[in-house]
Amino acid sequence: MVHRLTLLALALSGPALADDFQTYIVGGEDATGDWPWAALVEIDFGGGSRGYCSGSLLSPDQVLTAAHCFFDENGQQINTSAITVHIGSGLNGTNPTRAAGAHYLHPGYNNIANPLGNDIALIHLSTAIDVSTLPSLVDDAHFEELLARDATGRDEALTAIGWGATTTDPNNQTVSPTLQQVALDHVPFSTCNQNWNGFLTPVQSSVICAAELNPQDNETENTCLGDSGGPLILGDDPAPYIVGLTSFGSADNCQAGRPTVFNRVLNMVDFVEENAPLVDVTIESGPERYYGALGGQTTVPATVTNGSLRNTARNVMIRANTDDTSADASLQWSGCDDGGLLAGDDQCTLSSLTAGGHSSGQVEVSHNGVTETDATLALSVSSDEDEYRIKNNQAPVTVVFSNRPDLTVSAEQTSADLDSNGQGIATIAVRVSNLSTVNAASDATVELTLPAGTTAGGDDTVQCDTLCWIGPMASGASVDFTLTLTSGTPQTGTLTLAAADQNGGDFPRDNNQHELTVAYSGVKAASDSGGGGSGGGGSFGVGWLFALAGLALRAQPPRRNNRSR
């Protein structure tokens, strides 16, 4: 995948050179059929010249892409009539085609004076198109979670997709016949800006960076020509959160130089709402689990919010249902069109919800008393307006009906030393919890599966060997204790802990076990057993820094980078 840039002179105030930049998703893989909402934006520049960018179908008639795609080689903005959009991730030429009815560029984007930041555009299709899934613009919570990740969590945390070139051959840089995807590492802004010699400081709030820091077999993995405007998404969810749009990268013939810079969509929501009647209606509940006794009931609170900045949601439909016939859901919600719900109703409609408005209610879930269950209560919300965060329209909640406790265990290594005899001594902080709010445990225990050559001991409160005896636990209670492991042959191994109630067991048993890697190197071990992706993490060192004269920016007209067929 390629996006083009212009080299800048050493003095930023000096004239820009006319060199062309080419980038592409290279080293990726075919994504045919994986992303039905993917868009290929075709632009007729006249005289038989055509350009191509990538994009995303955000709603049935709105496509998100990059602003810089819509300027010819003379810096003139093209007319809407020149835009055609192909929707889908089938083979190129087989996807449904729509003409553009209108297109809008961010008012803060200036292709000549200010080509950095705000690189976002919205295309309104002349005819809507229905697809099986749609992406969502990332919300604050998920974006902040991404920014807070450590190096392991940033490794291959993002995926870029697009129709750009897949080769560095300058004579063969046409649109790819198949949609491409590549896993990339999130690069923190401070690192990215350092590698761009501080040039990104003025646009920090509107960009996010990604790169493959440790590619397999040293193969280049990047975005390139024709990928401009394509989405950068969290993970590889088929209905993902979009965090960025491909904007620009290094003028290195699509090789892995500086991190690629993407437009940050979280800060562009107002632009989207101003130019499309889209809303952000969400439904949320409290804890992940609610509890009731066999034949009893439990109350699940919920809140519906219109997180839109300016648009009103009309005819907001709230629904509640379970996936188990033994549990029946009934909405209790004021403000519905019928003036209030009767018992047994599983949906209601609010006539409208203004931008920033919210409405709260509850769901009564009743059990038939026959068989214990951990049913899923599906809360959902929709409105007459299309959404730009459709992913937040559902809130699954687990509802447990049982006469048994629900035990869970977690653990974290806190120290690792060698004693005077060379034995490894590791201390583990353990927490056992009874998540049930209605049932007590009469004889809670934690069974230990120890690494080879290891023995275990508890503390003054909990005695352990291969079994730790907790004893009675009230509903909602937690017990903390310290587990000490001794190994005559200290080496890395796996400790498995399994919580149980010796008198009658517990329910459900989906969260009773925890695995912990125990190490004796003197370095605190991670509390989780998961690992990073295959690409590996890493960081840009001093060797990645280039002279400012080599700085590349996407300021040239896109036609050179969006080759004709």
From TrEMBL:
InterPro entries: CLIP_Serine_Protease, Ig-like_fold, Peptidase_S1_PA, Peptidase_S1_PA_chymotrypsin, Peptidase_S1A, Trypsin_dom, TRYPSIN_HIS, TRYPSIN_SER. One of its GO terms (biological process) is proteolysis. Residues 1-18 form the signal peptide. Residues 25-277 form the Peptidase S1 domain. It holds the Pfam family Trypsin. It comes from the Bacteria. The keyword Signal applies. One of its GO terms (molecular function) is serine-type endopeptidase activity. Gene3D superfamilies: Immunoglobulins (2.60.40.10), Trypsin-like serine proteases (2.40.10.10). Keywords: Disulfide bond, Hydrolase, Protease, Serine protease, Signal. This is Serine protease. It comes from Alloalcanivorax xenomutans.
